[in-house]
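User: Hello! My lab partner asked me to get a predicted holo structure for this protein. The small molecule is adenosine-5'-triphosphate, SMILES included with the sequence. Please write out the structure tokens.
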Amino acid sequence: MSLLTVNGLSVHSPDGRALVRDLSFSIGPGERLGLIGESGSGKSLTALAIMGLLPAGMTVSGSVVLDAPGMPATEVVGAPSRRLDRLRGRAATTVFQEPLTALDPLMRVGRQVAEPLRRWRGLRGAALREATLSALTEVRLSDPERIARAYPHEISGGQRQRVAIAMALACEPALLIADEPTTALDVSVQADVLSLLANLIAARGMSLLFITHDLAVVAGVTDRVLVMRDGTAVESGTVLDIVTAPREPYTRDLVDSARTFDEALNRRKP
Ligand SMILES: Nc1ncnc2c1ncn2[C@@H]1O[C@H](COP(=O)(O)OP(=O)(O)OP(=O)(O)O)[C@@H](O)[C@H]1O
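Assistant: Hello! Below are the structure tokens for the protein in complex with adenosine-5'-triphosphate.
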């Protein structure tokens, strides 16, 4: 059984436009799938539908089943929010493009990272403090004591995204959904954050749904790719298949415009 099974997922806007159409895919334990497509192709709405977080007024049909270890398999579509609250963070969690969306501007970073550790792992006092600093160290933040004392605006964009990743991983989720997690960062720190994410996912054996418009980025992080256009899947396959033999003209364009996919492929382990 897969960890995530999406079957015939469709999302319609309040005025009836089909924004995601009949999308089906699955992700097994430890698998890493890239969702790639140009702006507006429906990638983010797919992620939101999986988390049960679509904007009010949108209608969703089809099926999204999350079946994480130690939790009952759950149909997300139509589930009451109370049931989804128990899944979010644990079965699946999200890192978004803009780390400030995950962070409270008025709360010190340490308290924010501590919160999921307290809630999910039941840690308190010195153990909680130690786990918070170790979570910040794990995302390769040097001087974690200073970062823990800082407010989000007092640290850099790259550091904020590392903090957001630390918070997401604190709940030990089975599936991480990363929606353009490096797009808002300076080019100089994009590669660092990407390799951090790839290493953490591999070390923990987590599953990954990685959303991007950039094939070069996805090539370095995922095993398989699903190409989306206008809300539908137009092609899917292994990263190597898609890069070396794209079948659809749209995919070919994506391959052609992938800035540095050669470089990214070279980074992949054989
Ligand atoms: N709240 C909303 N109300 C109405 N339409 C929306 C809403 N959010 C997204 N859309 C539309 O749904 C379509 C898919 O949007 P989505 O954000 O999933 O695309 P995307 O592939 O993630 O693009 P990007 O890479 O720019 O984030 C787009 O046409 C978008 O305009």
